[in-house]
Amino acid sequence: MSGYSEPRPVNTDYAVSLLEQLRVFFEQRLLTDVVLVVEDAEIPCHRMVLATCSSYFRAMFTSGLSESRQGRVHLHSVNSAALRIIVTYAYTGNLAISDGTVEPLYETACFLQVEDVLLQCREYLVKKINVDNCVRMLSIGDMFSCAELKQSAKRMVEHKFPAVYKQEAFLQLSHELLLDVLSSDNLNVEKEETVREAAMLWLEHDMESRSQHLSSVLSQIRIDTLSEVTQRAWFQGLPPNDKSVAVQGLYKSMPKFFKPRLGMTKEEMLIFVEAASESPADGPGSGSLHSAVCYSPQAEKVYKLCNLPGDLQKVGTLVTPDNDIFIAGGQIPLKAAVANHGKAGKTQAVYRSVDSFFWFDAQQNVWVAKTPMLCARVRPSLVHCRGFIYAVGGDSVGGELNRRTVERYDWEKDQWSTVSPLPCSWSWSTCVSARGCIYALAHDLTFCYSPEADTWVEVASRKTSRCFSSAAALGDLIFYVGGLHVASTSGLRLPTSTVDGSSVAVEVYDVVKNQWRRAANIPAKRYSDPCVRAVVLLGSLCIFMRETHMNERPRYAIHQYDVAADRWYPRQAISERVLWDLGKDFRCAVGKLYPSCLEVSPWKPPAYLFAPDGVEEFEVDGEMVSLPHV
Predict the structure, then answer these.
(1) Which sequence ranges are marked TM in the entry (predicted)?
(2) What domains lie within the chain, and their CATH numbers?
(3) What is the DSSP code (8-state) at residue 597?
(4) How many other C-beta atoms lie within 10 A of the C-beta of residue 92?
(5) CA distance 25 to 5
């Protein structure tokens, strides 16, 4: 009989039981053989357990030196609370990390070389990086040589530079880290004067000791990108004894051309989420894929954004005043269910609603997962108000009570909390923020939410009952555009919200006067299926319109509203060579993005641009084109 024995699977129940017994031995101080002494605390432990999780203790207890036989080990410059958390983890496998404990825990884990704790703390810190702590995280990552934390924190510092350079943590940066930040091409600044001010604030914070760094710090300023007025006066305020040295040295050493900072290349773009794009690999009737693209009206170019994570569909979309892009909720495909209809089976996708929440890292062109919402929501309304993000309602989230729920996101804490629910259950509500309040609009009703009072109050009603409309706020005015008429009694949806078959209806709410009024209709040449999105583009209220007629290809145009004249006029026609068919369900927002960080999406001529056999003329961009004689 052979001596070979087949390996058996690990008995996980036994492993859990062994860990549980170790915990009991630790709590009851049974068979402990070493005492950790830190500050005024003493923690009896087992050498074997400590050596298993910590390379520091493993080296100490197996070295053969006198320290390996000591019954009491004194640990200096170690946080006692963090040490207790690590010891508890060694016996239970459970690590309690919070905002208040993560930094001392990370420092203690570095000292004791507990790799598992270091990894979990690093992931926690990277996820929690925000505008208020990114400078401190940069210093921590540098101090402990954590490349991932340092890199993630630096990206946030670059992205939020106009907001962080006045923080106390920035003024306390080391000279080396300051140079690393100021020399970056990726600073999100629109003017070099911002970098100059940051450099001067850091120098003036402790001029006596930092004057030795004057030339190295000021040499990071790209003089040629400063305005002429600033260039003439920018050395004013420097110490008299250093001024001449700085002037002579800097101007001699400066190159003649400076690469602009990343923030100086930003372009305001229309961002389309869930744009429909047929996959050439799919067969007939296979449906469409959903992508995220953006269109630059200035350059008339389309750029490709990173696809939504996990094939997400029907998400809520938001661009904050600080130009941060978020998506929330939605649904993901699970599998294809086959329904039999006669002999042929028809495949239908099965979806699951999700509570996901993502922030878009514009430098990396990636979606970064944040703490999920408290509820799963399909197409929630996302609104930014007074520094917080609100997720309002949503479709198909399970019952009337759930559809009324509202929750608020605190980016500093990366945390969601519930607030007062909507007064009514709406599947088609639209929300906007104006004058520090949130306005929810559906049917002919309008409700106003006050964050201070945490209450919803009904305000003036509209003249018409409409849903599936688009809304945007500009100053004290809220514009409610397009949508479908809904009969107030039966809930019947009529074909369109047009007045005479050739225009789109617009209503305007004055927040101060608490009044609705009709505005000029948006002219439309022809359409059978209206699709309009209200946005604020380059400081003006605009409408992005998708026009269709019968089975013809869609046409796109941007219309701008003149508030004083109450008139719409075409701002820009968009050639089909630039923007393909986006479908009807896309989300639309406006944000500033970096063209150099995006992929240009090349135009590919669709098949219907080529003349059918035997046809001498066909239409391109609204004009009839004749085939050349061969």
Answers:
(1) none
(2) 14-128 (3.30.710.10), 162-264 (1.25.40.420), 269-334+349-609 (2.120.10.80)
(3) G
(4) 14
(5) 34
